[in-house]
Write a structure and sequence with these properties.
Blueprint (H helix, E strand, L loop, with lengths): L2 H5 L18 H16 L2 E5 L6 E5 H22 L3 E9 L5 E11 L1 H11 L4 E7 L2
Parallel strand pairs: 1-4
Antiparallel strand pairs: 1-2, 3-4, 3-5
Length: 134
């Protein structure tokens, strides 16, 4: 039995663990169309990754997909380390509301350190994506 047959009635491609790599995936096709539209319309941002000192130029769609993966990793790290908070992404905005830069990382912190770091940002042009302990 293939993954397509297993997930056909339960939620389709949205529930399938191979949804990002399967050639039959409607989700993969939808993401590729969004990516092509981003390229055509010039919706690109500079993104800092933890494994490189240089930023990468990604489409908005590529960034959102990468952010989802970092969110999953942050949830795993939070469970493994029992950290109060795990920061996994940041965005900095220009005055016109467009994204200036973005960053992806996995940073487990206790609550006091998290509050100190986020307060030090202290501006409305930054967004911090965080997983919290329940």
């Amino acid at each position: 039995m293939t993954f397509c047959e297993m997930h056909k009635n339960s939620g389709g491609c949205e529930e399938c663990p191979n949804r990002h790599v399967c050639d039959n995936s409607t989700l993969k096709i939808k993401i590729e169309h969004k990516h092509q539209a981003d390229l055509a319309q010039g919706r690109m941002i500079w993104v800092r990754f933890p494994d490189s000192p240089m930023c990468r130029h990604l489409t908005i769609t590529e960034f959102e997909e990468a952010k989802k993966e970092f969110n999953r990793k942050a949830i795993e790290v939070q469970k493994e380390t029992d950290a109060d908070c795990v920061i996994y992404a940041t965005k900095t905005y220009n005055e016109d509301g467009s994204i200036r830069t973005a960053g992806l990382d996995i940073i487990p912190l206790d609550r006091e350190e998290y509050d100190r770091r986020v307060q030090s940002l202290g501006s409305k042009d930054e967004m911090v994506y965080t997983v919290y302990k329940r």
